[in-house]
Amino acid sequence: MKKRHFIIACTLFSFGTLAVFGQYGIHSDGSGGYLERGRLMYENHNYVGCIDQLTQLKRMTSDYSMNEIADYFIAAATYERGKEESVEMLVRFVNKYPSSAYVPEANFKVGNYYFFEGKYGLAIRTYSGLDVDKLPESLQADYCYRLAYSYLKEESYLQAKPLFEVLSRSSDKYKEASDFYLAYILYAEGDYARAMQGFAKSSGSREFGTESRYYMTQIYFLQKNYAQVISLGKELLGGNPGKEFGAELNRLVGESSYFEGKNSDALSYLGRYVSMTPRPMRNSLYMLGVEEYRENRYSEAIAYLSRVTDKDDALMQNAYLYIAQSYLKLGDKKNARLSFETASRYNYDQQVKETALYNYALSIHETAFSPFDESVGVFERFLNEFPASRYADKINDYLVEVYMTTKNYKSALVSIEKIKRPDAKILAAKQRILFQLGTEAFTNARLADAKSYFKRAIDMGNYVPETRAQAWFWIGECNYRQNNYAQAEQDYKNYLSLTKQKNTHLYSLARYDLAYTCFKQHKFSEALSHFNSYVSGSDKSDKSMLADAYNRIGDCYYYARRFADAERYYGESQNILPGNGDYALFQKGFMAGLQKNYQVKLDLMDKLIATYPQSEYIDDALFEKGQAYTIMGNDKEAIRVYQKLLKDYPQSSISRKGGLQLGMVYFNSGMIDESIDAYKQVISAYPSSDEARVAAEDLKSVYVEKNDVSSYASYIKSLGGTITYKVSELDSLSYLAAERSYAAQKNISGLTKYIREFPQGAFLSQAHYYIAADAFNKKDYGTALLSFNYVLEHQPDGNFAEEALARKSEILYLQNDMDNALENFRLLEKKATTTENRRASRLGIMRISQNQQKPWGVLEAANSLLQDAKLSPELRQEALFARAAAYKAVDKPDKAIADWKVLASDPRTIYGAESAYLLSQHYYDTNNLDMAEKQLNNFIDQGTSHQYWLARGFLLMADIFIKRGDNFQAKQYLSSLKNNYTVQDDIAGRIQERLSKIGE
User: Fold this and answer.
1) Do residues 808 and 821 make contact, with C-beta atoms less than 8 angstroms apart?
2) CA 264, CA 801: separation in Å to the nearest integer?
3) In the listed set 671, 702, 726, which residue is the last one of a domain according to the structure?
């Protein structure tokens, strides 16, 4: 029925067309001629001429029928020329002439335009909207095929299939294509048996034969009929199927060869496949990597397998296992460990996980590479996850070995303490671990923690006797640093009595430290004995310690008033280490004076001043020279030396004494006026000092000698009471009672009572100092600061002023009042007479300058600190670290590198760990990636308890590989870090940032 209607419509259309066109001659000059010529030109494919004739027609007539015909053929000719605007023209025609007989063909052409442009969705929409019965019968098959093909391309197989079935039955033109596409639809739907029949039917086709056999190869592969894949695939490849099918056929043949155990073919065909496609399939890369591994080409295996690790699945897990084994074959144990670790973290393949976890544990044990304390944990994890494994017994044995050798002490201790019935071997390991935790805490100045660990190790008994003995030594070190000298003395004695290793540096050091504990307690006779034992038993390699021991022996003899012996040992010290011999030389000269060898004393003091111009004993040496000249009766030289002392060292407490001596020498020489001036200079320069009070008393004697007491009275009056040169007995007795109470009971009530009852008392500054010191020890910094300020305001040159200034500076620093703290530390540096205060002032200046980002201030203070031969290791490291940062800030990287290298050699300390990272970061920033990697490897191999900086090192290692374009290696480090670093800080965010960067 539909077909009949179609024929009638076509007939009417044909007659109508003939009626219109037949009215005019082709040579007519009228509009009919233009219409006839345009039609003939369209039929002869002269589309430009057609458009020209019919456009002219539209200018000549307004006849509706003629314009309808002209508009259609102009649009149709534009379509035939392939112009994009034809779609708009055809649509406009349909909208303008909806009843036109040309509408079906116009819509068909619009659909065709989209079809040939590959816009199948738009083609489907257009084709579906027209009535096929109104198309000429000659176009209906084309319409049906193109609509079916468009559905196929859009994967709308349900709509495509019936159209292809109709064409297969009724269209000779499209039967072959329809049979092929029907087979393809069955293939796409997974009906491989029927699809295979369809493709087999099309396999002889000239147009679809190659493609049909290609899909047959695909089906054989899906059916795991690998022999047929290889046979048919090689046949197709021999016919040069082109790039479209060539890459995939190489893959199919290569993977089939892999499954068939034909390794050579697998390598050959998979290699060609990978080279032919920019994004090869992961399965193929994995198989190619495995084949390279089997051929002992491990670097090539890693290169292929690493490209499989971009997705979490069983294939990735297997790939990591092969990668790890490849690294092992190449001798790269570190990367092997990282890959075994990654493979062990996934559960896709339990057998792979077990093998990887075992090898991961083994690699940690064999290489001692366990940066994030995972060594013990990984053995425990294996036993928990695979208790019935064939490796379980070996893992148990390894775990005991790990307890004895690990550097991951905290995790080992936690693990041991889980064991309910530990045997002697485990307990020996525990004692060693406690000891190592103690030394680790000691290295990082956590003395309370260190003492706790050492005590626990001692309390365990004699599982490892030498470890127990050494724990006593290190407890002694902790107590010594906390100024608990009596306890430290006993600790050292315990070590010396227990250790069996007598010829070691530690034994010698214990003798030295024991001697010092006695010396600090003023037990000079015992100190002398122990220093002599140290000197006689020392290996003489540490000249600094040996010279210091000789100095202390000299001091012990000095306190025993055996001056000749003291002088001899000071001389020994100076001979052993001339570069640091200023103290020994000064003491030697001082001893010569005590033995009345004044010229020798002068010569030695001159030698000190010439040899050590920066020595802290220069002012002392000048004073002693003045004393010697005075005793020898050489007042002229004495005056010259004292004047130089006052001029060069005005802030020194020795200068005050020198001023008194100068006044006395002038007086004894009959130079009364000069004597008066000298005493007045002491009073003027140091008005609150004890020396000023003495100068006022001595000045009185001078004026009496001059017979001018009235002038003295006038002078004293002019001072306005700033000098208290007379103290009442009640004042003195009240203060002494309060001071004794404080000294005995640390009770300040007597001092506060004294201040209240003697508001003008002579000892107010001393009382305020003790009150301030008590408040400082109780961390009552407000009270302490008020009283320290009183001392500094009323007796800035008194005996307590220096300590008051030191504590005030510290309080201001603790209160974060950096500007005032810096000002006070600088003042303290000028006035300090003790090594401790001079050191404290420079440390304060350095820290504040660092806080305020003033690198030149840091450099000045740090360099001064580092010249101190007796600076503690902790402060030396801090000064080196601060100096390195300052050098970097002032663009002196070479000097910063030198300091970082020194610190990085011991990453057990926080400064060493951070310096190891900063040194690597510097190399990275200057694009010296090889040096950055080398430094980081050293850092990782050494390990550190300061895990944050090690984590930063792993991140930097990832950055190095990212910069090199090696994202696989970068991911190795990031994954290991993510799995093993458990601290909640900024590291997790930094890891994710880099993983995202790699993903992009």
Assistant:
1) no
2) 90
3) 726
Q: What is the dihedral of CA 925, 926, 930, 936, to 10 degrees?
A: -40
Q: Are 164 and 182 in contact (CB under 8 A)?
A: yes
Q: What is the pLDDT of residues 760-818, one digit of tens each?
A: 887 888 889 999 999 999 999 999 999 999 989 888 877 888 899 999 999 999 999 99
DSSP-H helix ranges across 223-332: 226-238, 243-259, 263-276, 282-294, 298-305, 314-329
pLDDT tens-digit series, residues 401-435 = 777 766 777 777 877 787 777 778 888 888 888 99
Sign of the torsion formed by the C-alpha atoms of 828, 834, 839 and 844? negative
**Selection from 943, 881, 970 nearest residue 918 by Cα:** 881
Angle of helix 835-851 relative to helix 873-889, nearest 10 degrees? Answer: 40
Asked whether residue 404 is assigned to any structural domain, the reply reads no
What range defines the domain where residue 35 resides?
20-100
Q: Look up the pTM and report it.
A: 0.65
Using one digit for the tens of pLDDT, what is the confidence trace for 595-632?
889 898 899 889 888 888 888 888 899 999 989 999 99
CA–CA distance, 848 with 885 (Å, rounded to integer): 14
507 located within any domain = no
Question: Does any domain span residue 977?
Answer: yes
- Angle among Cα 629, 630, 635 to the nearest 5 degrees reads 85
Domain edge (last residue) among 726, 761, 795: 726
Q: How far is CA 213 from the centre of its chain?
A: 58
Tens-digit pLDDT profile for residues 869-915: 778 888 999 999 999 999 999 999 999 999 999 999 998 889 999 99
The one-letter amino acid code at 213 reads: R
Q: How far is CA 78 from CA 42, 84, 110, in A?
A: 10, 8, 12
pLDDT band per the 50, 70, 90 thresholds, residue 538: low
Q: Would residue 237 count as lying in a domain?
A: no
Q: Give the separation between CA 16 and CA 942, rounded to whole angstroms.
A: 99
Which residues does 842 contact at the CB level (< 8 Å), separation at least 6?
A: 825, 829, 861, 864, 865
Instruction: State how far the Cα of 830 lies from the Cα of 841, in Å rounded to an integer.
Output: 9
What gap in Å lies between CA 606 and CA 586, rounded to an integer?
Answer: 10
Query: What size, in residues, is the chain?
Result: 1000
891: left (phi over 0), alpha (psi -120 to 50) or beta: left
Amino acid of residue 639: I
Q: Where residue 972 sits, what CATH number does that domain have? A: 1.25.40.10
Side chain identity at residue 493, one-letter code? K
> What is the pLDDT averaged over residues 988-999?
89
Number of domains in the chain: 3
